[in-house]
Amino acid sequence: MTQQTLNNDKAIVVFSGGQDSTTCLFWAKKHFSEVELVTFQYGQRHDTEITVAQQIAQEQNVKHHLLDMSLLSQLTPNALTQHDMDIETTEDGVPNTFVPARNLLFLSFAGALAYQTNAKHIITGVCETDFSGYPDCRDSFIKSMNVTLSLSMDKNFVIHTPLMWLDKKATWALSDDLGVLDYIRTKTLTCYNGIIGEGCGECPACHLRARGLNAYLEEKGAR
């Protein structure tokens, strides 16, 4: 929520091993003295996401929590948990990759973990600029969730969203500023089909990622 200079408190990063959450990991390492990661197993389209998250956590020497949230896949059909569904946009304009209540539950459990580990700060890579129509990626939801978490546990949590107002080009620029553009380009998993790095090049996630990267590299080369 805040972009001000941060102190050296402990932070929990909601982590999938994708471009956005990995950028948030390095952002957190820059601003906090202690960082831990939490990844959720919720029956997502491919198990490679978990493997990638674990590998990055190990390479970066960051403590990693893996929590079982498989109940999510039982609640509603969607293209991220139902592997036989084609990825498409519904009549109301929301992609069928939207998992209802996912960020609500993820932030709730991240808050519970933060409470137990004495962490004040929670970081998530949600973004309203390139939010694909997901209502739980909006700034208004995050602000509401911040208040709810703090009230529910009587703790002054701070949810940080360093990517909230960045498009994908600006997110790549941030990773370059952090000195990890090549790492994120080759090590992270954004592709809905489970292909690390450049991905399949066909799914919506790959299109968004590649369009942002190409725009950033073109801009950088023109300087």
Concise summary:
The chain is α/β, with parallel strands linked by helices and 223 residues long. It has eight helices and five strands; from the N terminus they run βαβαβααβαβααα. Helix 6 packs across helix 8.
List keywords for this structure.
5-stranded parallel beta sheet, Rossmann fold, alpha/beta, about 220 residues, disordered N terminus
Strand elements, count: 5
In helices, the fraction of residues equals 40-55%
* Structure annotation, total helices: 8
Radius of gyration: 17 Å
Give the CATH topology: Rossmann fold
Structural class: alpha/beta
- Low-confidence stretches are 1-5
Q: Layout of helices and strands, plus pairs?
A:
Blueprint: E1 10-14, H1 19-31, E2 34-41, H2 48-59, E3 63-68, H3 72-75, H4 102-117, E4 121-123, H5 139-153, E5 158-160, H6 168-177, H7 181-187, H8 204-221
Parallel strand pairs: 1-2, 1-4, 2-3, 4-5
Helix pairs in contact: 6-8
Describe the protein.
- With 223 residues, this protein is of the alpha/beta class.
- The chain has one domain: Rossmann fold, CATH 3.40.50.
- It has eight helices and five strands.
- It has helices at residues 19-31, 48-59, 72-75, 102-117, 139-153, 168-177, 181-187, 204-221, and strands at residues 10-14, 34-41, 63-68, 121-123, 158-160.
- It has a five-stranded parallel sheet, with helices on both faces.
- α6 (168-177) crosses α8.
- Residues 1-5 have low confidence and may be disordered.
- Its cofactor is Zn(2+).
